[in-house]
Amino acid sequence: MSxxxxxxxxxxxxxxxxxxxxxxPKQLLRIGGKALLEIVLETLAQSQVGEIIVVLGASAEAxxxxxKLGAAKGVINEAYREGMGTSLRTGLASVDPRARAALVVLAxxxxxxxxxxxxxxxxxxxxxxxxxxxxxxGFRGNPVLLDRSVFxxxxxxxxxxxxxxxxxxxxxxxxxxPLGDPGILxxxxxxxxxxxxxxxxxxxxxxxxxxxxxxxxxxxQLVIVGWEDVGRALLQLGCFLRFxxxxxxxxxxxxxxxxxxxxxxxxxSTLLPPSSGxxxxxxxxxxxxxxxxxxxxxARADYIALVSNQKRARExxxxxxxRGMAAGSLSAVRAPAGLPIGAENPEEIALSVMAEIVAExxxxxxx
Length: 367
Known about the structure:
Elements: E1 9-15, E2 30-31, E3 34-35, H1 36-45, E4 51-56, H2 60-66, E5 73-76, H3 84-93, E6 101-106, H4 114-127, E7 131-136, E8 139-140, E9 144-147, E10 174-178, H5 191-200, E11 209-211, E12 221-225, H6 229-240, E13 244-248, E14 262-264, E15 278-282, H7 289-298, E16 303-306, H8 310-322, H9 327-330, E17 333-334, H10 346-366
Parallel strand pairs: 1-4, 1-6, 4-5, 7-10, 12-13, 12-15, 13-14, 15-16, 16-17
Antiparallel strand pairs: 2-3, 6-9, 7-8, 7-9, 11-14
Helix pairs in contact: 6-10
């Protein structure tokens, strides 16, 4: 750590979660003989951050027994069950009062590079944004750097929200920093994520575009952004209805995506193969929503839909309006996606979306 708290940036490591999807404290899972939290702390110690604050909650006693915090300061979030917002609030309350900014780091990002952290700090020093976000191939990741000027707005955060809760308030002063570090996207949420990484490592960076032979450009193109449950169901329906199916995801390999005609590992719609019509469905569970909609609107896609609930849809569209996107352009975005058939599970949601796409396609052909 080469800076002092008086002149530098504090790091807040969010390590209070109960790891319900993992089934065990993921902070203590080991890669290469080291706990995930230990790896993250070592990376931070090699960077420019001036102090390290570790926010603990669930399994705090076990974590403190197994992981030596060293120069880092551990703080307890007693309200950790209420969600990530309370951990962020707890961490910010512990930041040195002389620090210029805080870097919010997840405890399950073992492949994050110290050079990435330094790049974010350098960009904050040079441009003084209120928020600095790292990008890898156009995909937004973590950690997020927050200028001290936004700390007060986060003082009352609660529930399962994070830094995105204030993005809409500062759309004119967010700096997106392109980086060549896939580690900003590699967090380990499930046992499957962890076992795959432990067995195979992060793997080589995939090519920008993978294709399965020559694509039939005369067929309509279904573009699915995000490889989640709804996206998987959409892929199956798209194949059945004879669409050319393109998946947009940073890491999902084409060889492990049965039915997909191509996989684009960059959030750049200009790189997609041409087609007779493009129907874009964003099903990234909040990870890339705004950026994917911006891309689809700029590309004049025939259909753009966001898989979300009503509350999230309002937040995303409101954020895009505040960024200056024309209301006329956003009016074409179906949010939430799909026909109102009372869909509940991923397969039903996918069916409602594909029904809407088929209706829109026929409307365009006959209108």
